[in-house]
Amino acid sequence: MSGVWIFDKKGVARLVTNPTRESFEQKEPPYPGTATAPGARPRVLVYLPANKVIRSYAELEQRLAELGWTRYHNPNGSDLLQFHRSDDSAHLISLPSSFNNLKSIHMYDLVVKNRSFFEVREPPACDSPDPQ
């Protein structure tokens, strides 16, 4: 096991393999919904028909509703947001309750279950407006 051991504020250690300078400096994910491992490239979920990055659960829920997904309200108070196709279907999408905790694995689950409507991409290099 090669790499660097990092200790967080709570004293919990984790191994960072192939560390980069950015992996030590990054405190918050650069885009909401792109929590990543240190040094990993963040990802964004893109709704293909509009070629638009999904930036909130409100946007995502609207797009899923258009595709026939229904929000499943768990009476037990789960910390997950869940969507299903119908009561007769076994298709289920489970997402963390906070959009900031949405990870690549959740995004790829959305892509697999909605192949021609979503895509996971690297974010644009710069989100700032054009300098004038």
Characterization of the model:
This protein has 132 residues and is an alpha+beta fold. The protein has helices spanning 21-25, 57-66, 104-113, and strands spanning 4-7, 13-16, 44-47, 52-53, 70-72, 80-84, 92-96, 118-121. Strands 4-3-8 form a three-stranded antiparallel sheet, covered by helices on one side. The chain has a three-stranded antiparallel sheet with strand order 5-6-7. It has a two-stranded antiparallel ribbon with strand order 1-2. The relative contact order is 0.16.
- β-strand percent reads 15-25%
**Secondary-structure-derived class:** alpha+beta
Q: What's the number of helices?
A: 3
Largest sheet: 3 strands, antiparallel
Query: How are strands sequenced across the largest beta sheet?
Result: 4-3-8
Mean pLDDT: 79
> Judging from the principal axes of the Cα atoms, what is the shape?
globular
Oligomer: single chain
Let me know the number of strands: 8
* Low-confidence residue ranges: 32-36
Taking all Cα atoms into account, the compactness measure Rg is 17 Å
- N to C succession of SSEs: EEHEEHEEEHE
Helical amount: 10-25%
Tell me the distance between the termini: 49 Å
